[in-house]
Amino acid sequence: MGLDRRTFLQQAGLALFTWGATEAGISSLAHHNRLAALLKNHQQTLAQPTSRKLALLIGINHYTAQDHLAGCLMDLELQTELLIHRFGFNVSDILTLSDRQATRENIEMAFLEHLTQQAQPDDVVVFHFSGYGGQVKMPLASKEEVLETTEIARDGFRLANSLIPVDGLSSTKKNLIANSILQETILVLAQTLSTAKCTFVLDTSFNQTPRSKHGSFQVRSLSSVADSPSSQELAFLAQLQHDFADKGLKPSKRSLSLPGVVLSAAHDNQVAVERHWDGFSAGLFTQALTQHLWQITPSSKVQVALARTAETVQQVMGRRQEPTLNNPDKSAIAYYFGLSDAPHAAGIISKVDKNNRAEIKLLGLPANVINSYGVNSCFNLVPSVENSAPLQVKSKAGLIAKVEPLAPIEPLKIGRLVQESIRMLNRNLSLKLALDGDLNRVERVDATSALANIPAINSAVVAKEQNADCVIGKVFTALEPVTTNLDNSNQPFTYGLYTAGGDLIGETMGAEEEAVKVAIDRLQPQFNNLLAAKWLELTSNEFSSLIKASATLLTPEIKSPLWQRSTLVALDTLPSPKKSYLPILQLKQLITYRS
User: Fold this and answer.
1) Range(s) for CATH 2.40.10 in the chain?
2) In this structure, are residues 108 and 198 in contact, taking their beta carbons and an 8 Å threshold?
3) What percentage of the chain exceeds 70 in pLDDT?
4) Helix 231-246 vs helix 35-44: crossing angle, to nearest 10
5) Residue ranges of the chain that CATH labels 3.40.50.1460
6) What is the mean pLDDT of residues 390-398?
7) What is the pLDDT of residue 101?
8) DSSP assignment, residue 287?
9) What is the pLDDT of residue 550?
10) pLDDT tens per residue, range 292-348
11) How far apart are CA 368 and CA 372, in angstroms?
12) Which of 43, 113, 371, 524 is 20 to 30 A (C-alpha) from 307?
């Protein structure tokens, strides 16, 4: 007999009384011999009169055997608000597993109970995972498997990607055992769904290379490879495959055979990171993706949303994190649900008091804009109504802005959407500089003292602990240790500037043996350039302006566009150029900007 949803939630709740789940306790949630019954019950479920939208969201900050993450639960909040208020999901159709609830067996059984057993052919399904990813050694069963696998094969085993649940790792005296969810299991589970309208969002990474020594972000992948998967996970996967075999089917191990689309935060050989902004932390990928989905025009293709998301991520991480779209369905719109009349939005009203003052969650604004958002900024209600007045920001903390109507208006309602109308920025805008961990105590003291006299710098913070616009650190001239754990204390070095994502900024290195105070004085022009770029980013209003406009960067011949940008939410769309290509430029060749 399969678990009904109420029983599952009740039993999952019992696990909250303890930090971990014992094998005996977990077994009460799922037995492998019940999987076939679950699939059979799923086939017999009565069809819903209208299509439903189901979501399973998993986020883990507090791991039992790993360094804690900080942004995974915020990812779930961002995704939940988007699904409910932008895509029309019912709250009761969204199942969230966070921290202690997100054990391996709970996640796998929740997939079968909440998604497989309920989803019908026309339903929409969203699966989201935020947490650590890793790799585990898997034995190669045959030469055929060596040819079929797309993963790294070596010495009789392959490295398989896996999602790390809260109880994802255990160890013996000799081996590290991964009680994780194999990516292959996710592929097979996806093929148990009756609908092809599926979106899998994976804000994690699998690359186990040592961490970047520069930058201010937390990486969402384990640095070590597990020696073997758990016997429970292998048994679960074997049971799923057996159920398919009973039906004369063979589940595919390739993501290209999945129904729907898979949105991944990075390629397999890259890292996915989470970032600390002022007042909140979130996955860089999830924050950018959900923000763009709040702003997309009706029925936009998923490729468009991911392209804009990738652009945002690339501005921070360069080529070290590039979001990907696997199994691209060219006809797929975002989350397989048309927005027809749904307006774009900068945020939603999340709280209203008796005096008609409200709190707004700023979900549809770029994170860098939220960081610098000023008092007296204004929002308009959407859809607009007669005798409406703008809502003016009185204070802001993290994603929450407290607002008041500028004139008496009808009572505000929770869930009402708002659009940005006036953006206020501090005229004394400045940079926040992070001091890299490579700097010793004396260097940090000297750097902090020297930065006090730099107008473009507001404050110096410790890298990886607070949000920063850039990082000052050492550049080892003989051996740059960006991704190594080697001891370079005796290596010659100079000082340079890095992006917040850890990429060295060109032309910022000085001479060897210079003092850090001298380096900071030398870098003053670079600080001014970075501040100018920050102003440009913060005044860009492509997500807010209703004016139909575009800007193009051209070569002198004008026929060769280098770069184009258009407002995204104007009522009328602009014609796209007939050709799209990048011309080859000569060194010192002049270019023209036209708007």
Assistant:
1) 347-422
2) no
3) 72
4) 40
5) 54-131+182-220+250-336
6) 97
7) 97
8) H
9) 65
10) 999 887 667 888 889 999 999 998 998 889 999 987 665 677 777 665 456 789 999
11) 7
12) 371
Per-residue pLDDT reduced to its tens digit, 65-97: 788 999 999 999 999 999 999 999 999 999 999
Q: Which band of pLDDT confidence, cut at 50, 70 and 90, is reported for residue 372?
A: very high
pLDDT at 592: 57
Tokens of 508: 């910022």
- Distance between CA 29 and CA 11 in Å, rounded? 7
Pick the closest to residue 60 from 95, 21, 101, 25 (CA basis): 101
CA torsion angle for 97, 101, 104, 109 (degrees, to 10)? -60
- Output 150 or 593, whichever has higher pLDDT: 593
Query: How far is 5 from 109, CA to CA, in rounded Å?
Result: 10
Report the b/e string of 494-511 with b at 16+ CB within 10 A. bbbbbbbbbbbbeebbee
The helices-and-strands tally (H runs, E runs) of the chain is 14, 29
172-187: burial string, b at 16+ Cβ within 10 Å, e else: eeeebbbbbbbbbbbb
Mean pLDDT of the chain: 81
CB-based contacts of 66: which residues, under 8 Å, 6+ apart?
A: 132, 164, 168, 169, 222
Structure tokens at 438: 């490579």
What is the average pLDDT across 199-213?
Answer: 81
Question: Which residues lie closer than 8 Å to 23 by C-beta, 6 or more apart?
Answer: none
333 Cβ partners below 8 Å, 6+ apart? 299, 300, 301, 302
Residue 350, classed as helix, strand or coil, is strand
Provide the token pair at 305: 């949303």
Confidence of residue 29 (pLDDT cuts 50, 70, 90): very low
Three-state SS for 38?
helix
If you average pLDDT over residues 217-245, what whole number do you get? Answer: 89
User: How many residues does this entry show for the chain?
Assistant: 595
Give the CATH number of domain 54-131+182-220+250-336: 3.40.50.1460
Question: CB of 116 within 8 A of CB of 189?
Answer: yes
> By C-alpha distance, which of 486, 287, 444 is closest to 371?
287
Q: How far apart are CA 353 and CA 376, in angstroms?
A: 19
| CATH of region 347-422, choose from 2.40.10, 2.60.40, 3.30.465, 1.10.1740 | 2.40.10
Helix ranges restricted to H, 89-156? 104-110, 143-148
What residue type is assigned to position 137 of the chain?
Answer: K
Domain 431-538 -> CATH class: alpha beta
- Average pLDDT (136-154) is 60
Dihedral (Cα; 41, 47, 53, 59), 10-degree rounding: 0
Is the link from the previous residue into 139 a cis peptide, with omega within 30 of 0?
Answer: no
Is the CB of residue 380 less than 8 Å from the CB of residue 405?
Answer: no
- pLDDT 10s digits, 428-446: 999 999 998 889 999 999 9
**Exposure class string for 543-577: b at 16+ Cβ within 10 A, else e:** bbeeeeebebebbeeeebbeeeeebbbbeeeeeee
Distance, in Å, from the CA atom of 127 to the CA atom of 55, rounded to the nearest integer, reads 6
